[in-house]
Write a structure and sequence with these properties.
By secondary structure, this protein is an all-alpha fold. Helix content is about 75%, strand content about 5%.
């Protein structure tokens, strides 16, 4: 009925409310109820199982809700509601960054960082998370000099908060190591990567996808320093872990398979030998 009088536009299983109707509806909400309603909506969205925004398998859930979440966090921020606003800003920022919307993601990251610094102080783990997200975006947009001090600050916060063997510290170490590798400081990067690998193996066990990520990154560094024979078993192990935990169709699995193929090629293996070695891990292709 609403669609028949142009108050709603129907598209498949979704509906878009006319902007004028939105504004009229908002204007009729008593001002004393605004904050309570925003808190309620924030709680609902925060509890909804959207999943990891960096995992492409969750994108069908994220895509139709992203613009709604963007509008929600802006209104919540304007109303000085800090939680879970900052968390949602970070999650939405990750989704937008992986969709190559860097400018929108950076705005959200910087605002979340400011909110959390004001809410928790400058040495809180939430601040370390915000710093890592912002630094990763700065690295992705080739602002490495800006990214490095943020990564080092995040590492210091997490080591102080959780101790030197915590999985959050492994993430910080990995991020900083990759930046050091990108600036050709391979000798500095390698011990950080090895330490991150050791932490995750101890924390999650030897067959966890996080371990595969660390193995892949370390293998790439060894390949960059021409230690191909050292890199090969690490890359092979990473491939086996990803195949067992994520399946062949997952993008991370495809990336590591390509990396392993290129490594074997660099080692002088023939096409037939490469096919056989990759096939021994994931089956014939």
């Amino acid at each position: 009925e609403l669609a028949d009088v142009s108050m709603l536009r129907l598209t498949g299983n979704s509906a878009t409310l006319h902007r004028l109707v939105q504004e009229i509806t908002r204007s009729r909400i008593p001002s004393a109820e605004h904050a309570d309603r925003l808190h309620g909506i924030l709680d609902v969205v925060n509890a909804y199982p959207l999943g990891d925004p960096t995992d492409v398998r969750t994108w069908p859930r994220w895509t139709p809700l992203a613009e709604h979440i963007a509008a929600l966090v802006d209104r919540a921020d304007a109303a000085a509601i800090t939680a879970p606003t900052a968390r949602l800003m970070n999650q939405l920022g990750l989704f937008l960054q992986y969709r190559i919307r860097f400018r929108d993601a950076e705005r959200l990251y910087r605002r979340a960082l400011a909110i959390d610094e004001q809410s928790f102080g400058t040495e809180d783990p939430n601040v370390a998370r915000d710093l890592n997200n912002l630094a990763a975006l700065l690295q992705a947009t080739n602002r490495l000099d800006e990214a490095e001090p943020l990564m080092r600050r995040a590492l210091a916060i997490d080591e102080q908060s959780f101790g030197p063997e915590h999985p959050s510290v492994a993430i910080d170490l990995n991020n900083l190591a990759q930046l050091l590798q990108a600036t050709n400081r391979l000798a500095e990067a390698e011990p950080l990567m090895r330490r991150a690998l050791a932490i995750d193996e101890h924390s999650f066990g030897p067959k966890h996808p996080n371990v595969a990520i660390r193995l892949n990154n370390l293998a790439w560094l060894l390949q960059a320093t021409n230690r191909l024979a050292e890199a090969e078993p690490l890359m092979r192990r990473a491939l086996a872990i990803f195949f067992a935990s994520l399946g062949e169709a997952h993008p991370s699995m495809q990336t590591v398979a390509t990396n392993y193929w290129r490594l074997l090629k660099a080692m002088g293996r023939s096409e037939a030998e490469i096919e056989a070695e990759v096939g021994s891990v994931i089956g014939p292709r």
